[in-house]
Design goal:
mainly alpha; 0% strand; elongated
Length: 115
């Protein structure tokens, strides 16, 4: 397909409508301590896919979709954080239980008794 300059301008104009506001997403990511990064990467990846579809239609060069790779890295990072927090809370609970004083049977029976 032979594209004219007008077609290229039309393609770039149509593709430019699907831009990601990275400054806004950075601020939201900082405010939410990184949780918003999921949304940021999904939006950025979707916008790149939309731009690439438009660019292919007008025979323009496409972009690589790096946010998809970053999305996987982000997923691995958050899974690591969640498992680290879970193991830390389990070890803290185990150490708390092991330091509790042993109750005498008589005291325990008085505690459980309804009388």
């Amino acid at each position: 397909m032979n594209t004219t300059n007008e077609d290229k301008i039309l393609g770039y104009t149509a593709a430019s409508e699907h831009r990601t506001n990275h400054v806004l997403h950075l601020i939201l990511t900082l405010v939410t301590a990184g949780v918003w990064s999921w949304v940021w990467l999904i939006v950025a990846s979707g916008n790149i896919s939309k731009r690439n579809k438009i660019k292919k239609k007008f025979s323009l060069p496409t972009e690589s979709n790096i946010p998809k790779i970053l999305l996987w890295i982000n997923a691995i990072f958050w899974i690591f954080i969640i498992f680290s927090l879970m193991s830390a809370s389990k070890s803290q609970a185990a150490s708390t239980i092991s330091t509790l004083p042993m109750l005498e049977a008589k005291t325990l029976m008085e505690f459980v008794s309804l009388e």
